Amino acid sequence: MTKTLITRSLSLLLVFAFCTPILKTSSAQTPEINKASLVIHSDQTGPTINRDIYGHFAEHLGRLIYEGLWVGEDSKIPNTRGLRNDVVAALKELHVPVLRWPGGCFSDEYHWKDGIGPRDKRPRRPNASWGGVDTNAFGTHEFMDLCEMLGADAYINGNVGSGTPQEMMEWIEYMTSDSDSTLAQMRRQNGREKPWKVPFFAVGNETWGCGGEMRPEYYADEYRRYATFIKNYSGNRIQKLAVGSHDDYYEWTEVLMAQAARYMNGLSLHYYTLPTSNWQQKGSATEFGEKEWYATLVRTLRIDEFIQKHSAIMDKYDPQKRVGLMVDEWGTWYDREPGRDMGALYQQNTLRDAVVAGINLNIFNKHADRVKMANIAQMVNVLQAMILTDKEKIVLTPTYYVFKMYKVHQDATLIPIDLSAPEYKMDQTSLPSLSASASRDKEGKLHLSIVNLDPNRPAEVSTTVSGSTVKNITGEILTASSMNAMNTFDNPSAIKPSAFTGYKLQGSQLTLNIPAKSVVVLELR
Ligand code: AHR
Question: Ligand 1: which residue has its CA nearest to atom 6?
């Protein structure tokens, strides 16, 4: 017995002795720091970052329009002409520049005349793309009212799949004509005297898929035909947008540019970030470890390559860069939440989504010479949403806060940067640990957005601002202790921005300490 005790004590001592250095190493577990360097060339200028890069998308899908935006005038939820006040107020903070509607796939089954006139007389139609029945309570007038409340430009997506050029042409006349034509008079009878401005109109959506399963050659001809009937009435000037490609479908871009570039102002691109690349098992929005974090960021970064390659094709046919690349659907797409409707595409939103948003927006800024618009999918309750709602409650997501922090880049001038950062490694692969973008706004203020992709290591960024003397720094940081930090209806403020204090300014030497898994936006004065 005693012998056993002595042996045990000895072995414990041995274990302790051998473990001590290990313990030491783990107490030195203070995370290693990624040392990076950044030069902001504030004496050079790039293209203007079109504010529409910070655009949004609202489709008749799940609980986005109905419940998310529209509750109706008789609802107990406080509303203005049927649009919920809390959601509109929160969205106003983002300075939403442009809003795309009514789809997505839904736009190719939408007939605008269903959505005008007295609401109790409007037809109820099946939403064949996403399920359920659409009451048409939210139609053209309600959408335009929302745009006016938000101060956003309207981007209407026309119906090619099941519509006609005449239907499209009449919709535009109804919305924008100041004449005494029958359709303009009908708009007045329905409560709107003055025409609206419609700066963007798209000829169909995903016509290579849900919008009609077309071949690029066929759609190029269809596009030319429909676009002919997009008319400018009463001083309205429409930018005509053609359906573009998705991911690496370069042939589509080649054919559209070769055959129809001169009839368009913009060509779209759709790209969704799936943690797995597998549409059958995309991955969970909230239950994930570092492997899924890493895989999600790898797939997010791919959009840089897609934009570069689609742009290179566009450059062949449009070297002046007259035609904008409109990334009018982007964002994360995860598996359906257990217990939610199949077609509702409702998903939670975590710090990972904030990092994805920050990376994407930095990439769009970088390509501001060609990317003229981008619309995150989607605004409320669907995919990578800004806001989630549950009856009268709302939650602002981490992605919402990124859009709020990044709004300083809207219409600012891109400032070239040189960023050199260690890689964030996993297994045999690696990706850049930092993503950044800088701009100068109309008042001359310099802004820097910087994302630390590495969930373990903070970055120490030795920063030089050439051409300016920085005396003052203010800014915000969005981060949390866990990768899947999220705001819920029970805990709506678990993750939100706070003041950024992690910098040292000694003479002209600026050091930024960017915590692991964080998004930071700074103003340098
Ligand atoms: O955003 C959801 C859907 O994704 C859109 O309706 C469609 O255009 C895309 O496939």
Answer: 104
**Contact indicator for 299, 291 with CB cutoff of 8 Å:** no
CB atoms within 10 A of CB 324: 23
| pLDDT for res 339 | 83
Active site residue 206: yes
Q: What number is the average pLDDT over the span 81-108?
A: 98
223 near 263, Cβ under 8 Å? yes
CA distances from 36 to 58, 135, 297 (A): 39, 55, 19
Query: Which amino acid is residue 349, in one-letter code?
Result: N
Question: What's the gap in Å between 350 CA and the centre of ligand 1?
Answer: 21
**Residue whose pair of structure tokens reads 């300075």 in the numeric block:** 95
pLDDT for 471-506, tens place per residue? 999 999 999 999 999 999 999 999 999 999 999 999
Q: How far is the CA of 388 from the centre of ligand 1 (A)?
A: 19
Q: How far is the CA of 239 from the centre of ligand 1 (A)?
A: 22
SS3 sequence of 298-319: HHHHHHHHHHHHHHHHHHHHCC
What does the angle CA 48 – CA 361 – CA 89 come to, to the nearest 5 degrees? 95
Residues in the chain: 525
pLDDT digits 0-9 by tens, 270-309: 999 999 999 999 999 999 999 999 999 999 999 999 999 9
Ligand 1 surroundings by CB, under 6 angstroms: 59, 103-105, 205-206, 329, 377-378, 383
Protein residue whose Cα sits closest to atom 7 of ligand 1: 104
Percent of the residues in the chain that have a pLDDT greater than 90, as a whole number: 91
Q: Averaged over 118-142, what is the pLDDT?
A: 97
